[in-house]
Amino acid sequence: MHISSTFDAGNIEVVDISDRDDVRLRIVKDAGGEHSQWFHFRVSGLDGEPATLVIENAHTTSYPKAWNGYQAAASVDRQTWIRLPTSYEDGALVIQVPAGLQTLWLAYFAPYSRERHHDLIASAVEEGALHEVLGSTLDGEDLDLLTLGEGELPIWVIARQHPGETMAEWWMEGFLGRLLDRDDALARKLLGAATFYVVPNMNPDGSRRGHLRTNAVGANLNREWAEPTMERAPEVKLVRDRMDRTGVVLSLDVHGDEELPYNFISGPEGVPSWTDEREEVRQRFERAYEDANPDFQRVHGYGRDEPGKANLTMHTNQVAERFGALAMTLEMPFKDNADAPDEDAGWSPERSAQLGAAVLHPLAAVLDELRAYV
Known about the structure:
This protein is of the alpha+beta class. The protein has helices at residues 114-126, 167-179, 185-193, 204-209, 234-246, 276-292, 315-323, 349-358, 360-365, 367-370; strands spanning 2-4, 13-16, 23-26, 40-44, 51-55, 73-75, 82-83, 86-89, 92-97, 104-107, 130-136, 142-149, 153-159, 194-199, 250-257, 264-266, 326-333. The chain folds into 2 domains: 2-107, Immunoglobulin-like, CATH 2.60.40.3120; 114-373, Zn peptidases (Aminopeptidase, 3-Layer(aba) Sandwich). A hairpin with a 5-residue loop joins strand 11 and strand 12.
């Protein structure tokens, strides 16, 4: 048996591989040493025999409680991802590999590769989106921006501030695919009313390095929005500077949540400038999203910040306060949707993409209200 992770988004340390019934592994921490949870590796030489993989430092990761009820994602062709029997025992994550396999890829969630990202950009350009590089990351990666539409309403949609939350870019694939569908009447309406600024991957360095939450120097980008610098968080600095030029009436920041098995919105109700009127628009957006795709729900989520107590280093709060915008964070699960579970796949790339396509409905539902923000 051989285990490797020296590839795009790879992350695992092999401790002991001598006993296939007790293969000992460890997750490697992000740059900065504060966060860890993401893993992605390949097991070869299985020879059709079962194996037990034990990630022995699961209890030291950023969200150890998240392992309860979690099932590891696995694929034999890197196209279709299923879930393997997984348990959290005595601080270790134990993954059962079934018999009948030769080579297997495992990951915290189905990866979204650099190559697929480039395919996404190419496909969007082919369908009429304008592509530009906002600038370079600390590792020298391009920070890609897509611009779509010609309307007066500036709408920003970003994903993967936390690189291990790969469901966010799967969501982007569904969102962009529908928004650029020339035969979709709702997409045409939105592109006529708004100009969309889309960053499919805010953290390409962390994505390539196999990080959960940070960029190349250990910065959690979603805590850098108050005073971003090119030295620590160029990704945020470049995007916020462009937002200052375009303005923002609505911003959606797409994430994944390790612990909660639901899809939900978190809003900026704690910022000083929040109003009852903006709260009603947010609620209208959420109701329309729930109607468009029942995988979205409004019962479970985070607690609400007290008025004036919002953390302005976070994207949603900073953008809401800075621009008077309807800014929101969308969270999706690493586990499954507890309201509609899929025993084989859990929450999946396919369902993430469907949720992305469905967001056109709530966007259309609040267009009239957004015009008041221009």
